[in-house]
Specification:
- This protein is an alpha+beta fold and about 230 residues long.
- Helix content is about 15%, strand content about 25%.
- The protein contains four helices and twelve strands.
- The strands form four sheets. A five-stranded mixed beta sheet has the order 1-2-8-7-3.
- The longest helix is centred in the middle third of the chain and has 12 residues.
- The termini are far apart.
- The model has no long low-confidence stretch (mean pLDDT about 80).
Length: about 230
């Protein structure tokens, strides 16, 4: 692993930036405009020989680092309201969406994770790697289906998991948990029909209800009168 990191730094140090990962993993970030060139080098260079693209994963950084809960003070185990820890700045220059590529070198028996941000938050787009690794075909279709990430140059970019008439992208963090429509089989029409969602939405934000003067503003500024006791 140390040798691979040194080789990457020597060959691609100007194009890749190493990011924190587990001790036995290598993870690098690449600018989207340099993705194709870097991937070809990782595949073809003798010191790398990453012949296989094992997986392609979409990432949604919406509300990134807003993962804490506050009661009387910020804590990692309380349940109240989300607060920002340290800097809430997203990686990749603030881009909401990114793509992670998991590479395997059979020749050298090493793995590598590569991440690249998508250009636009509304219609995220990045270059397709199908011409470099054919296995990217279905992986990129999955990322398009679930995250709405567009892959420029993909030969057949269409949904692969959800239905053709599915609305939205279910792995986006702002996708409603109850969905947008529901389907059922109508025996009279003899087909599956789409209908508005009949499930009532639930609030899933953890809430603390404490009968304590510390959490009741009305009780912190005045003393509650105690009822008189008859003798």
């Amino acid at each position: 692993m140390t040798n691979l990191a040194a080789q990457i730094h020597a060959r691609l140090g100007a194009q890749l930036r190493r990011v924190a990962a587990l001790a036995d993993e290598l993870c690098y970030e690449v600018e989207p405009e340099q993705l194709l060139e870097v991937c070809r080098t990782l595949r073809d260079a003798d010191e790398f020989r990453f012949e296989m693209l094992m997986d392609v994963c979409g990432v949604d950084y919406l509300d990134y680092r807003v993962d804490e809960w506050r009661t009387t003070s910020a804590t990692r185990s309380g349940f109240s309201r989300g607060v920002e820890r340290d800097s809430a700045r997203r990686p990749h220059d603030g881009a909401r969406f990114a793509v992670a590529y998991h590479l395997l070198s059979i020749t050298h028996n090493v793995r590598l994770r590569l991440r690249a941000r998508c250009i636009d938050a509304e219609d995220p787009m990045i270059d397709s790697l199908v011409d470099i690794w054919p296995s990217a075909n279905w992986f990129e279709r999955e990322a398009f289906d679930l995250f709405g990430i567009l892959f420029s140059g993909h030969p057949d970019l269409r949904r692969i998991l959800t239905d053709y008439g599915f609305i939205g992208h279910p792995f986006r963090k702002d996708f409603p948990l109850i969905g947008n429509v529901e389907v059922r089989y109508d025996p009279e029409q003899r087909r599956v029909i789409y209908e508005p969602v009949s499930i009532e939405p639930r609030t899933l934000v953890p809430k603390v209800i404490r009968h304590d003067s510390r959490y009741d503003p009305a009780l912190t500024s005045a003393t509650v009168a105690q009822p008189a006791v008859k003798s």
